[in-house]
Amino acid sequence: MDHLKLIPDKLSVEEVSDLVLDSRCGAVSVFVGITRDSFDGKKVVRLEYEAYDSMALKAMQSICDDVRDKWPAVHSIAMYHRLGCVPVKEASVVIAVSSPHRVDSLEAVSYC
């Protein structure tokens, strides 16, 4: 199952990772993309994201479809992306992938 969401609120890593928990899976791999305080030697105080929701969700679903083609053992994928202002040290994206074994979930979350 795929859980895809664009939200203006602060992301919860626990909430996203809980979406992919399943008794058949022995692995959950999580990636958290965070706003850092510099880019190319310049100070960063925040990132701002905006999206055409239906197009962004379609692109996210396409990534999930690719993951399922490459790693058929993947059980669930959750991909939440924040919109609006994301200050330094806060998450812009949280991706969680579950599978019976860790190799599939680790490779899949890296692909996302």
UniProtKB/TrEMBL annotation:
GO biological process assignments: Mo-molybdopterin cofactor biosynthetic process
Domain of life: Eukaryota
Matching SUPFAM superfamilies: Molybdopterin synthase subunit MoaE
InterPro entries in the record: MoaE_sf (IPR036563), Mopterin_biosynth_MoaE (IPR003448)
Gene3D superfamilies recorded: Molybdopterin biosynthesis MoaE subunit
Name of one Pfam family that matches: MoaE
UniProt xrefs under PANTHER family: MOLYBDOPTERIN SYNTHASE RELATED
Name of the protein in its database record: Molybdopterin synthase catalytic subunit
Taxonomic lineage: Eukaryota, Metazoa, Ecdysozoa, Arthropoda, Hexapoda
